[in-house]
Amino acid sequence: xxxxxxxxxxxxxxxxxxxxxxxxxxxxxxxxxxxxxxxxxxxxxxxxxxxxxxxxxxxxxxxxxxxxxxxxxxxxxxxxxxxxxxxxxxxxxxxxxxxxxxxxxxxxxxxxxxxxxxxxxxxxxxxxxxxxxxxxxxxxxxxxxxxxxxxxxxxxxxxxxxxxxxxxxxxxxxxxxxxxxxxxxxxxxxxxxxxxxxxxxxxxxxxxxxxxxxxxxxxxxxxxxxxxxxxxxxxxxxxxxxxxxxxxxxxxxxxxxxxxxxxxxxxxxxxxxxxxxxxxxxxxxxxxxxxxxxxxxxxxxxxxxxxxxxxxxxxxxxxxxxxxxxxxxxxxxxxxxxxxxxxxxxxxxxxxxxxxxxxxxxxxxxxxxxxxxxxxxxxxxxxxxxxxxxxxxxxxxxxxxxxxxxxxxxxxxxxxxxxxxxxxxxxxxxxxxxxxxxxxxxxxxxxxxxxxxxxxxxxxxxxxxxxxxxxxxxxxxxxxxxxxxxxxxxxxxxxxxxxxxxxxxxxxxxxxxxxxxxxxxxxxxxxxxxxxxxxxxxxxxxxxxxxxxxxxxxxxxxxxxxxxx
Length: 565
Prior knowledge:
Layout: E1 6-13, E2 19-28, E3 31-36, H1 38-48, H2 52-67, H3 69-82, H4 87-93, H5 99-112, H6 118-124, H7 130-143, H8 148-154, H9 160-173, H10 178-184, H11 190-203, H12 209-215, H13 221-234, H14 240-246, H15 259-272, H16 278-284, H17 290-303, H18 308-314, H19 320-333, H20 339-345, H21 351-364, H22 370-376, H23 382-395, H24 401-409, H25 413-422, H26 429-439, H27 442-447, H28 452-461, H29 466-472, H30 478-491, H31 497-503, H32 512-526, H33 532-537, H34 544-564
Antiparallel strand pairs: 1-2, 2-3
Helix pairs in contact: 3-5, 4-5, 5-7, 6-7, 7-9, 8-9, 9-11, 10-11, 11-13, 12-13, 13-15, 14-15, 15-17, 16-17, 17-19, 18-19, 19-21, 20-21, 21-23, 22-23, 23-25, 24-25, 24-26, 26-28, 28-30, 29-30, 30-32, 31-32, 32-34
């Protein structure tokens, strides 16, 4: 039976400003004929042609139809109920000016499920309206398997919205799309191959594993990365050896994007959790890319306890990036056997490793780390001291209160925060310094010497402080060397004379003139004549401040000798 169209009743204007209903039959989008007009019954066919309603229907209604969204939606609904014969009209409706009508048409086509609508719905995936794109994608999902070939083709569309919507639709279609997606991994378009790999990862069908392993050798880095990510989601152990190989993916010499492949491979190996990947992941901790290093560390954490021995060994690696990443990973894994090697790592030559070790020990919460962390409060690097303070706050041991109090007096916010975490008030500075000295944590006091208050209290300790202050004259920071020289001059212990004479030749950096000046002033206070030859040499120092200090020191020493005579 031929397609008869659908009938809709509308109201039209007529004579005298009145309106009355007419029934129209639509056989296409905007294509209609009058089925019933009451004016024809009243006036007859001839006179009805001259009626206002007839004129409106033929002259004005086509334009009114284009602007009447409600009427067009009614028509879409009617076409949707008419079945397959109405599909061409609904396809036409996908090009309507109203996004609401286009969305309704896509929805109606989805309910009908007719494959002839697929090309038009694929095109609608690129519609400017998000609602239309969503309705078209939903329609394609409902059509299902017949839509798969066109959706695969759409993965290579130049419009990103189309590619994304097509990929999402294929994932929602599910198992029926898998064979076509596997085949699409060999498509000539890298966009298609990339989207296919991503979709297969989301679908999680194990039959895709061999093809995804093969895709790890794709010429395009994005496809290789997507394949690695998909294999991680699928979790098949047979993917482990090729993923390990992908950790060495360096592409061409100019291909910096290949780091994404290595990072994806590391993440995938962590997701699979096979211990055979541990050596390769340890090596990846030294990758030139921070993203790869982070992914490898996170993968080792996910593998967990089996990775601990290799991570402990990695604390001795020649690359500080590897050592730091290993320390962080050990802290995240939380195995108690890692405490001693992490304590040892607090003495690493790299401040980054020492800070990571302190943070890790804070996470582990083992009290045996407290003495080493207190010692780390005297580290030359601020970040190490911060990490040690935070760790001590977490550990909750009262031994940490005195050194934390010293740093709190010196203005270190991390020390104040740690004391607050401990729930302990800050000690008075003299009490704190005395207890730190009793603990033998001289490194803390030496490092805090640059704070005038701390230096004055340390001077009050007298002779017991001298050996540590002499050692501080060799510190890498000129401010600490200068403060140590000033403190030694204030204490007045004769054993400080030779090291202070040596400090007169301090040429460490541009600021070392302050150290030479402080050493000259200290020697003047000590009054030992053995310092005079070295001080005379400083009378020709390039720094006027040092020359003046040396001259004043010589006068003081000579005056002291005269008084004795």
